[in-house]
Amino acid sequence: MSLGKFVIPNPFGPFEEPRFTAYLIKNWFEGKTPSCATPAYIRDNIPVSLLAKAYVPFVAGLPENPGFTRINPIGYAESQGDFALRVAREMRPRLNLPCEVELKKQTAFPEPYVRINTDILDADALGWDESAAWDAMAEYYLRGRSA
C-alpha cells in the first residue's frame, strides 16, 4: 500500500475556517482596528487555492508501489505581524478600506517560536496566480458582507 501525508499549515482564503484573517476582515468591515497579539511568532500561512493546486498532483502522483510519500507545502513563512501587514496591504485596495492593524508587543511565548513547512511549491507550474488569490479572498468576504 502506498501512503501519502500532506501536511497543511495555516490555510487562509475563501471558505477558510474562520481564524486570523477572518478576524482581521470582520474588524475592518466594522470600522475597527484589529490587533495581532503574537506578532513575533513565525508561522506558515498559505492560500487555500495554492494548497488545493498542490494537493491534486500530490495525490495523483502517489506511487503504485508500497511506500510513504510526504509533502510539507510552504506558503508565507514570516512573522504573524508581517503576515497581518501583508493581509492589510493586499486587502486595502480590494476592500477600499483603511485596513489598519495594531501589532502588540509580544512578551509571552508559550508556543514554539517557529512553526513552518519546508517544501517550496512552484506556483507557475501549478497554474496558481497570487494576485487572483487575493482578489478571490476579497470577493468572498465582500459577498458575505452583502448577504
Commentary on this structure:
It is built from 5 helices and 8 strands. The protein has 147 residues and is an alpha/beta fold. Strands 2, 4, 6 and 8 form a 4-stranded mixed β-sheet that branches. It has one domain (2-139).
Write the layout of secondary structure elements.
Blueprint: E1 2-6, E2 10-12, H1 20-29, E3 35-36, E4 42-47, H2 48-60, E5 67-71, E6 76-79, H3 80-95, E7 102-103, E8 114-115, H4 123-126, H5 130-146
Parallel strand pairs: 1-5, 2-4, 3-7, 4-8
Antiparallel strand pairs: 4-6
Helix pairs in contact: 3-5
List keywords for this structure.
single chain; 147 residues; alpha/beta; 4-stranded mixed beta sheet; two-stranded parallel sheet; 8 strands; 20% strand
Could you say which structural class the secondary elements and strand pairing correspond to? Answer: alpha/beta
Question: Topology as H/E string?
Answer: EEHEEHEEHEEHH
- What's the N-to-C terminus distance? 46 Å
Tell me the total number of β-strands: 8
State the oligomer.
Answer: single chain
Compact description:
Helices cover 41% and strands 20% of the residues.
